[in-house]
């Protein structure tokens, strides 16, 4: 399990515990006891704490967004796991700077499968999909790497064919076949109409197979 996945799961557990409390935060003793029991890597702990703090900072806006995108559902009707997982994921969608939208959705769905009920993953995915559709272009653009160049396709003749010998491309095989055919034609013409004193010219450095006499470079 990656450190960020672990951090998200720990953040969900903290939010779940806070949701059960009368206050919006855990008292220091309860929080210290949680981390002592979790035995989490330091990086995962810092990531979880940052997520929980961010959710607490934007809680009102997050709940408004969730209520709008969860058709026919109120926050009170949702399970505690689903409600807090949605807060966590929507917070990443709206305020996370370096997390692609698709990663946030996939992570939330996987965590819902682990901690939620039978329908949690489908419910969470549906709500987050609606939230993602409302994202401004500046946020949705996180899915596109900055300065990414359009994908280039290799020319057909440069692709290595599995039917050819290793190290030769289709274009090389076709050239060799054409050269062999041309040499056969030359031999036939010279056999039928040979002119005394006019020998057949051979290209220096060429072998009969149409190769260059050099070892072909290995396939990329």
Structure description:
The chain folds into two domains: 3-143, NusB-like (N-utilizing Substance Protein B Homolog, Chain A, Orthogonal Bundle), CATH 1.10.940.10; 157-189. The chain contains nine helices and no strands. The protein has helices at residues 3-20, 28-38, 42-57, 59-69, 80-95, 101-115, 120-134, 137-140, 170-192.
What structural class is derived from the secondary structure elements? mainly alpha
Count of helix runs: 9
Name of the top-level CATH class of the largest domain: Mainly Alpha
Oligomer: single chain
Number of strands: 0
Q: How many structural domains are formed by the residues?
A: 2
CATH domain topology of the largest domain: N-utilizing Substance Protein B Homolog, Chain A
**What spatial form do the alpha-carbon principal axes imply?**
globular
Query: How helical, in percent, are the residues?
Result: 55-70%
N- and C-termini, Cα separation:
33 Å
Could you tell me the mean pLDDT? 74
